[in-house]
């Protein structure tokens, strides 16, 4: 799994991850552990944007238990985990929304799916404005 991880702002409040190519669930969890490690090194709110490259392919099997674990292990300073999928249809968005409501985490990290990077930044700004976790 090739994942480029970088802070998208100078204040280190939004991590942008861009995945490319084919990968396994084991690689996904290893990358997830690295993200959590980085988030634990800061003491302010952080948000995560995950972009899948056009050639990126998910492993076989349901992603739901893997996404559930991702939300469960996120540190308490995480606000939103935003999946950017330019091909996201209404059904995919509804499924992710339902998943987020069913699997509420102890620290309230929320999973969203959006259709563009611009929409991801907009959702984060909106959530921060409405949240007590604001930067």
How would you describe this protein?
This protein has a single domain, classed as 2-Layer Sandwich (Transcription Regulator spoIIAA). It has a five-stranded mixed sheet with strand order 1-2-3-4-5, with helices on both faces. Helices cover 39% and strands 24% of the residues. β2, α1 and β3 form a beta-alpha-beta unit. By secondary structure, the protein is of the alpha/beta class. The model has no long low-confidence stretch (mean pLDDT 82). It is built from four helices and five strands.
CATH architecture: 2-Layer Sandwich
Major sheet description: 5 strands, mixed
Distance between the termini: 31 Å
- Helix-strand topology string: EEHEHEHEH
Which structural category do the helix and sheet elements fall into?
A: alpha/beta
């Amino acid at each position: 799994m090739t994942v480029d991880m970088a802070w998208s702002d100078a204040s280190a409040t939004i991590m942008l991850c861009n995945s490319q190519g084919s990968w396994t669930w084991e690689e996904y969890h290893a990358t997830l552990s690295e993200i959590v490690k980085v988030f634990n090194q800061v003491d302010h709110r952080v948000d995560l944007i995950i972009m899948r490259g056009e050639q990126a392919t998910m492993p076989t099997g349901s992603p739901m238990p893997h996404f559930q674990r991702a939300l469960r292990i996120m540190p308490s300073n995480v606000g939103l985990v935003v999946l950017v999928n330019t091909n996201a249809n209404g059904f995919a968005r509804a499924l992710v929304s339902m998943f987020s409501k069913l699997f509420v985490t102890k620290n309230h990290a929320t999973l969203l799916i959006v259709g563009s990077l611009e929409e991801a930044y907009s959702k984060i700004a909106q959530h921060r404005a409405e949240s007590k976790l604001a930067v």
